[in-house]
Design brief:
CATH superfamily of the largest domain: lambda repressor-like DNA-binding domains
Distance between the termini: 35 Å
Helix content: 40-55%
Radius of gyration: 17 Å
CATH topology of the largest domain: 434 Repressor (Amino-terminal Domain)
CATH class of the largest domain: Mainly Alpha
Structural class: mainly alpha
Number of helices: 5
CATH architecture of the largest domain: Orthogonal Bundle
Number of domains: 2
Order of helices and strands: EEHHHHH
Largest sheet: 2 strands, antiparallel
Strand order of the largest sheet: 1-2
Number of strands: 2
């Protein structure tokens, strides 16, 4: 799990593909990017409220995001924080839910 804040960079290291690989130009490069604020700030209550607004069980939300039900339960109780990938998926679901509620 990545425990970074919105202003802290996340480092991704792309390791070698081999000299004859079409991806050889990506060999051993380091990339840094910062997660958008909206993705990093979802609280446990917001995760639960989002799930309920989508009329989903913890298991259904877990299936959509690709994690275990226990993981969703841990997010909702604050025991764990979603990974950056899960946070982006939650943010996308939140945007869709907001559009559906307003439309």
């Amino acid at each position: 799990m990545c425990e970074t804040g919105p202003d802290e960079p996340i480092w991704v290291i792309i390791l070698g593909f081999g000299e004859n690989s079409p991806q050889k130009d990506l060999t051993n490069r380091v990339v840094s990017f910062t997660m958008p604020d909206e993705v990093m700030k979802m609280t446990p209550t917001e995760v639960k409220d989002l799930r309920k607004s989508l009329n989903m069980t913890q298991q259904e939300l877990a299936n959509v995001i690709g994690v275990d039900r226990v993981t969703v339960a841990n997010w909702e109780t604050g025991r764990k924080r979603p990974s950056p990938l899960a946070q982006r998926q939650l943010a996308r679901l939140n945007r869709k839910a907001t559009v559906n509620r307003s439309g």
